[in-house]
Amino acid sequence: MANFKSGALGPFEPRLVRQRKRRARASFREAAFLHARVVADLADRLEAIPRQFPRVLALGGGGLFSEEVRTRPELSARIGAILETGLDLIDPEHLPFAPNSFDLIVSPLALHWINDLPGALIQLRLALKPDGLLLASLFGGETLHELRLSLIEAESELTGGAGPRVSPFADLQDVAGLLQRASFALPAADRDVVTVRYGEPMRLLADLRAMGETSALRERNPRALSRRILARAFEIYRERYSEDGRVRATFEILTITGWSPHESQQKPLKPGSARMRLADALKTEEQSAGEKPDE
Predict the structure, then answer these.
(1) What are phi and psi of 218, to 5 degrees?
(2) Is the CB of residue 133 less than 8 Å from the CB of residue 37?
(3) Closest alpha carbon to 110 in 99, 124, 100
(4) Per-residue pLDDT averaged across 137-148, rounded?
(5) CA-CA-CA-CA torsion for 13, 16, 22, 25, nearest 10 degrees?
(6) What percentage of the chain's residues is helix, strand, coil (to nearest 5)?
């Protein structure tokens, strides 16, 4: 689980995060199936909220949010100017947005790379106008657990010890609580588990690299990931996580929503209400699992 203590050094090296994202610019669209899925889901949820959003920030998503909005005339008519940016362009620890800048902030699969997530959520709330909406998705703790366990076992078997190779992720209770700590009104959180199937584990690594989602840990394993360790990890992966000749990769997607406080809003519910399902709150349904075709 990620370190969410405000002011802590944190598990990620921001320079490496930006480096990974910049390297992935040319290949991102080739492997953006998860981002496209998330963007479509965020747009579905916005369609259930009958209000205008004149100024919008899209943090992450590589331009997919604007494209998705343009395919939905009713939603497009309610959304004004969209500023698209990503972690390759801004420092996630110091978000450069003035107070009361946006009516809506959407973030498709970006916030899981931020060390000081409590601080970032506070910054995002301050960047919203009163009664503005934050709607964001980020990877959760079950993400890539098959790859994580295979690498740990292979490295332990061959070297007698194992270090971190896969980034840590939050869980649903974490992010729900962080919304409350950041003083968002009417906070809610939901989860969706997506299972993607690959012909070979190497295709998963190639997609992660193309997405800009490879590890950017501050405390990296001092040993390089040798071909021997990787080959053994792939053997374990195939033995334990394959069906019908295809290996599975799990992606847990957490979606959070919160409103910048305003006197017109209803009073908060009793403590613990942030754990309610966002799908119920917005009268939407969770998406079923997907499959990544071979190329």
Answers:
(1) -70, -45
(2) no
(3) 124
(4) 96
(5) -90
(6) 40, 25, 40
DSSP for residue 140: B
- Number of C-beta neighbours around residue 150 at 10 A: 26
- Structure tokens of 255? 């979606």
What's the length of the chain? 295
- Chain centroid to Cα 86, Å, comes to 12
53-98: per-residue pLDDT in tens?
999 999 999 999 999 999 999 999 999 999 999 999 988 778 899 9
Strands (E), the chain: 53-59, 79-85, 102-108, 128-139, 185-198, 242-243, 246-259
d(CA 108, CA 133): 14
Return the HEC string of 242-257.
EECCEEEEEEEEEEEE
* Cα 191 from Cα 169, distance rounded (Å): 13
Instruction: State the Cα–Cα distance between residues 70 and 64, nearest whole angstrom.
Output: 10
pLDDT score of 175: 92
Per DSSP, 51 falls in state S
Residue type, 293: P
Domain covering 14-143+167-194+252-281, topology: Rossmann fold (3.40.50)
Tell me the CA end-to-end span of the chain in Å, nearest whole number: 33
What pTM does this model have?
0.85
- Six-digit token string for 87: 């972690």
Q: Are 115 and 93 in contact (CB under 8 A)?
A: yes
